[in-house]
Amino acid sequence: MARYQAPLREINFVLNDILDAGRLTRLPGFSEATPDVLSGLVEEAARLLEEQLAPLSAKSDAGCTFQDGEVIVPEGFKPFYKLYRESGWVGLAQKTEYGGQGLPYTLGKVVEEMVSSANVAFTLYPALTASCFEAIEANGSEEQKKIYLPRLATGEWTGTMCMTEPQAGSDIGAVKTRAYPQADGRYRLEGTKIFISSGEHQMADNIVHFVLARLPDSPPGVKGLSTFIVPKFLLSTDGLPGARNTVRCLSIEHKMGLHGSCTCTLTFENAKGWRVGEPNQGIHNMFVMMNMARIMVGVQGLGQCELATQNAIRYAQERRQGKAASGGETLIEHPDVRRMLLTMKAMTEGARVLAYETGLYVDLSRHHPDAAVRQEAQDWVDLNTPLVKAFCTDAAVELAALAIQVYGGHGYIREHGIEQILRDSKILCLYEGTNGIQAMDLVRRKLTQHEGRLPRRFFERVRNEIPDDAPLRFIAQPLLKAVEDLEATTLWMQDALRTRSEDAAFGGADFLRAFALTYLGYNWLRMSRAALRHADAGFAKSKRVTAEFFVQRLLPQVHALCGTVRNPTQSLMSLSAANF
Amino acid sequence: MARYQAPLREINFVLNDILDAGRLTRLPGFSEATPDVLSGLVEEAARLLEEQLAPLSAKSDAGCTFQDGEVIVPEGFKPFYKLYRESGWVGLAQKTEYGGQGLPYTLGKVVEEMVSSANVAFTLYPALTASCFEAIEANGSEEQKKIYLPRLATGEWTGTMCMTEPQAGSDIGAVKTRAYPQADGRYRLEGTKIFISSGEHQMADNIVHFVLARLPDSPPGVKGLSTFIVPKFLLSTDGLPGARNTVRCLSIEHKMGLHGSCTCTLTFENAKGWRVGEPNQGIHNMFVMMNMARIMVGVQGLGQCELATQNAIRYAQERRQGKAASGGETLIEHPDVRRMLLTMKAMTEGARVLAYETGLYVDLSRHHPDAAVRQEAQDWVDLNTPLVKAFCTDAAVELAALAIQVYGGHGYIREHGIEQILRDSKILCLYEGTNGIQAMDLVRRKLTQHEGRLPRRFFERVRNEIPDDAPLRFIAQPLLKAVEDLEATTLWMQDALRTRSEDAAFGGADFLRAFALTYLGYNWLRMSRAALRHADAGFAKSKRVTAEFFVQRLLPQVHALCGTVRNPTQSLMSLSAANF
Predict the structure, then answer these.
(1) How far is CA B551 from CA A506, B35, B308, B346, B480, in A?
(2) How many CB pairs under 8 A join A and B?
(3) pTM value?
(4) Chain A residue closest in CA terms to B166
(5) CA B205 from centre of chain
(6) What are the 10-residue block averages of pLDDT along chain A, 580 residues in total?
(7) Is the interface score ipTM higher than 0.90?
(8) Are B405 and A436 a contacting pair at CB < 8 A?
């Protein structure tokens, strides 16, 4: 089984030395969220997750079972979930007025990374609950908020997001589930949803389904969707779960991995629901929550990157195999193994800065007293969301595959738990919008909104921070070149969008990767600078060598990718589907 | 479940239009192996595999079971193996004097590709049997050949290769299994072997273990290893399987995939064995067989590439999801989906030429009457072996991951059989020498043997074939640039090997990929040329667009990779293991 030790030193380095998370205390309501307090909470979560959750990994991989309409979660999940929610971790970043802990969203992301390393399948239960909370908080009536938010903030009830249907995946406008208005103001829901995470289980007293459905008189496509609350148990007059509603789990999926998370097919047959928000505003109502969910999935990817990386390093440090030129006899003495480990470190540590910084911008966008600061922070959140989601999840699969290579044949054997990382991670590239959808979001939306202000902010910021001083020249010059190439490619993209939209779409995935790698270059610049003044010489050396590795081997990909984007295959769309 | 339809048109195009496989008929013994005969045999195999083997895929994934020392293979394997061997496919390319079919090795590789697409786990049973045949044929006594080869050629008995031990994986010199000489000329074997494919099953009347072990007075390391035959059943005086030998299966591994192939831990306790070849020549005795096995694994990778590619294309042609800019409503109309499908086509079709050409060189190296031609062919086999093994298997994992993306969330669900391709493929990057070991073989051995003659042959050949004519200029010029860059990097590598061996080792994996991609460029040049005169306009167009795609998106990676190789991170080895 893979082992997990929370990377506390790395986490604190990013929060304090790179991102100055201490500035959170200057936001209204966060005066007590000092670096010391955050660090203490991270340590407390780390202990809980290392000791109680990580050991459930193999049982989690054995999966959920489905019996007579009920889902039985893996052994150990129910007591751990109880412990986790009673310790207040579910509503960590939710408002205190609804029973949350009122702590920064940034801290929530740090804990989420650790949960995802310890057991990414478990993450889904609290994560979907948070998504459901956010959707109701943003769009619900006062009464709905009063009923549901406190139960979701404490995790007493869990939540789901019911969007996908057999014919409606990436094309969400194809949703067919119907909601018929009833005389009493409620709705009768009819339809089938698939791929519903946490759709049925016994860990909570109730499950709150947040459902995308279509009113009888609605226009076709995405403009005719509305949102509804459909609880598993209808509430009695005293607000407690009472009679069973007619939403039922038909089956659970047998998947590549993530077995501890049940993935349900739900049918709604004469199910009672309550509309949330205005009719036909469903997509709008989902918008904030969906973007938050994308950041969450990116953080899950980060957690899996960390798990793959730390296990591969430990194994390479311990496993004796062959004598290297250096005379050493452990795997880590072999140059090709170092190449793999440094790739893993460079990507994981770079991705952590990207993910946490995005979290910090969410806090600033929500809480900063100055509207201009809030707006700028929101721009960064918008730009970073597809980067975090797609890059961190692609990285998770890539690094999991590298970890298997480091383990050799043993990596392919289930008992080591390394191949599980790859199986668990691959879903992250698919759900909450495939990574292809993320690329489209970056190119079509984020490059164009506010007349291209989002990427301009990025280029300006990075240029301004590129220093002149000798000790950082090894990264400053290559980073500047990458920024210049990416900026030229961004202009090319913005132009292509207007005149040759298929060329733009064709280059989207490569463009996203080029953007993310440039962002990581900026992160490695900041980490290299901070390392210069770090007290621990070994830590500083590790950061320096990893930064050099990043500059030498990963950053140059930006130029190859940009070149590809700007030089599309002209004949691409001319090949008929039948001739593939 | 993934579907499989043998790509007969592609196979015949490569054999006839690109590689002129008709020249096989001019080799002694192959006069009847005309293109028509080969094509007929390929079709016959295709029908058998499509109809009888491919449908076993899901049952194969359910795995083998281990009970009371016996392994039970998946339902359907035993009757199919009987049918397969009785139809003569096991010994297809083995000599007729030993009961084989005496057909070209090239044809054997084509059939192996198809078997690997239809069910890669099944492939191991006949493939290890072929390896065992080759090892005994190359090193056995006349008596050993007479006893074992006819039974292995017909597949009546199957074979294994017993090399790996818990402490001896990539470092084969660490093997500890002992062979004690007995008064009667036999040996008593004592030890434990792990990861033994086909180590125990009931599909054949006997299992011939080919075992690497150490004589009592042997020197340490690889120079003290010898090889032994240890049959599962000792032979009675009439040559039939008699008493059970004391080699036993202790357990089978639970793996990421390849579940239909049993992976056994075998113990040898007072087991009776017969030495093959001279004492302490074990590594030498394994050499030919190991190289053949590496080509075989590369072909398994090709088979999985094909399976991923054809399923993704079919799904994208059929699945309606979202309206594309073109107005089309199937997945294949979306530019980002085309990007993925063309990546898959460009790699699979390019890899097929590499793999088959290597097979053809094996035939030439064995059978051509002219010693100079045989030598040149052997050079190509030596050069190509690590390329085929590492590139085709890395590609299999990469394309399997892309196929999952094309399927979206459905790709993650087991019933579609797409995630199985990734799980089944990942082992290919590990066994028969990890892909890191292949890179070392290419760099340390293949670049230096015969004073660098191997890569020189490649550069000369490709330069000579780069044409001047306008219709191929789109690929000729970029290919020439790639060749120049790769050649310069080869010289850099050869120099680094002498003076900075860790730099050379560090760049090995990237260098191998750059080499393979340049080779694929040469393949796409040849396919583009052949397509110009192809009768089917749709097929010709598909080849042309895919070649353009390859030139635009994959070939440029050569320059990025070469740049990386020639600019190693200097401080890499200075980071202490503890500071990772």
Answers:
(1) 15, 31, 22, 10, 12
(2) 259
(3) 0.97
(4) A410
(5) 27
(6) 96 98 96 97 98 97 96 98 97 94 97 98 97 96 97 97 93 96 97 98 97 96 97 93 97 98 98 98 91 97 98 96 86 95 98 98 98 98 98 98 97 97 98 97 97 98 92 96 98 96 95 98 98 96 96 96 91 89
(7) yes
(8) yes
